[in-house]
Amino acid sequence: MLSFTRSFSTSRRALVKVAVLGASGGIGQPLSMLLKLNPLVTELSLYDINHTPGVAADLSHIDRNSFTKSAKGPDQLKAALTGMEVVVIPAGVPRKPGMTRDDLFSSNASIVRDLVDAVGNYCPKAIIAIVTNPVNSCVPVAAEMLKKRGVYDPKKLFGITTLDLIRASTFVGELKGIDPMLIQVPVICGHSGETIVPVMSQCKPKIKLTDSEICDLTKRIQNAGTEVVKLKAGAGSATLAMAFAGSRMVDAIMRGIKGQSNVIECSFVEYNYEEAQYFSTPILLGPNGIEKNLGLPKLSKLERELLKIAIPILKKNIKKGEDFVLT
Ligand code: NAD
Ligand code: LMR
Prior knowledge:
By secondary structure, this protein is an alpha/beta fold. It is built from nine helices and twelve strands.
């Protein structure tokens, strides 16, 4: 376990301690850098089975008033996790061309299970944000593990779907020649193919889109991950946009912890919709994670049709995750 401390004359404010599990990976490294740059982070704990001492040493040279520490391998999980308030998990295998996210289950479910078990053991009150795919199944895996330990708090478990939101803003912005940072489109349901349901009818600001534009945008958002996987041609999936998206979600979680009002992000959490036990909806964040689930936005006829296709797939994904731990 290595730690790098900077000693400044200014007293360190009581801010947030964040751990990244899978910190040496394609997402883990840029995500850790963005968190290092976030003034709300007081301590950044980098954990991976490879390379973390070097990654942490590198990041520790950035002139920000925070600790950076590293831990490598399961023997150091206790040191990595003790005292952490937010734990982000991008550990796991990414897709190669031709694979679905569900194909990653056999490699990644056990990684998530074991890491979340350690979180439940060493920092049971931490808010957990899961990046690892398949998110639709890995969140239920995590919930069941935490239940086994008797420490599950549904307000504190999130699957990160923020990449779908930034993609929706970007693609609508490109189409209409508007700065994407000014556009917000809720994306609900899940994070894989047809379970990604953009709610174009609730786009803010209100933008006039034809039915065919909505269909094309919906398909593009649903397939955007696959588009990147194909173009990376075997070298993995989205990492940089994902790191940005993950950092936005963790920033929102931290602002919630700090009591900032009106912090809202869509995320995949426990929420019963049409018997799917987990569902991505807009969430109001607060000091304990979910302050209030804002539920589904108003949907158009097309969006209701998209959900009809998505729900059976999502339910299957959820059951797969639950069964993995329970049977
Ligand atoms: P990567 O292979 O570049 O990095 C994964 C890292 O996880 C590696 O450093 C590896 O050593 C580490 N790791 C593996 N097993 C571990 C364990 N047991 N404990 C700790 N660390 C472990 O992959 P990546 O591109 O960073 O993608 C990571 C995951 O994120 C993949 O499952 C990918 O599908 C997923 N992903 C999700 C989204 C999303 O929107 N939620 C977006 C992109 C990628
Ligand atoms: C994405 O949406 O880019 C991620 O889920 C990674 C993938 O496999 O597509």
